[in-house]
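Working notes for the structural subgroup meeting. M.R. asked for a predicted model of this chain before we commit to crystallization trials. I am recording the input and output together here so anyone reviewing the notebook later can reproduce the run.

Input as submitted:
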Amino acid sequence: AINMTDTSECEVYVHTWPDGNSSTYTESGVYTHNYDNTHGCASVDTLHLTILHGTHNVLSTAICEGESFEWNGSMYTVESIYTYDYENEDGCASVDTLKLTVNENPPVYAIEGDDVICQNQYAVYTYPEIDSSTYHYEWSIQDSLVGENLSEIMYYAPLNDTNFVISIAVMEWETGCVSDTSFAVSVCEYVSPDHS
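Returned structure, recorded in token form:
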């Protein structure tokens, strides 16, 4: 007698032949087994086996402090290695891995300068630490860019000026992480000199 069997299984398959013998397989292939059937006749069984495998994807990514990363429906903020168990399209047990790195934000320092200036006056604002090989610096006044990679900026308060906020954003070249600090400045009204 000649019998043929087609089957598929995840990772490992144990097949029991008609004569009771068992064989364990971990690779796809065509396997035969010779035996005498119950009538004492020489028989051959053939197994056409497909071994399916689980999926194992690895994702390595980085975020900055204060950010989160969404992966498989969950949000992650802490540096660690995470796993996600599921069945793939073949129905095999699978595990994906997330390797999450959290980069530190750049250090920031206080902006130095007068916190009160009057209309029709100049003021100078300085930042104590400038390292343009590691960081990129952007000065802004009221969210408008006024200078890049400068240790100081000069500001003129026109006659109609009002209170404003001066800020500096510091971005690390390697990671792209950004920190910022701001400085509120009050503007006093201009009083013309009395020439009488």
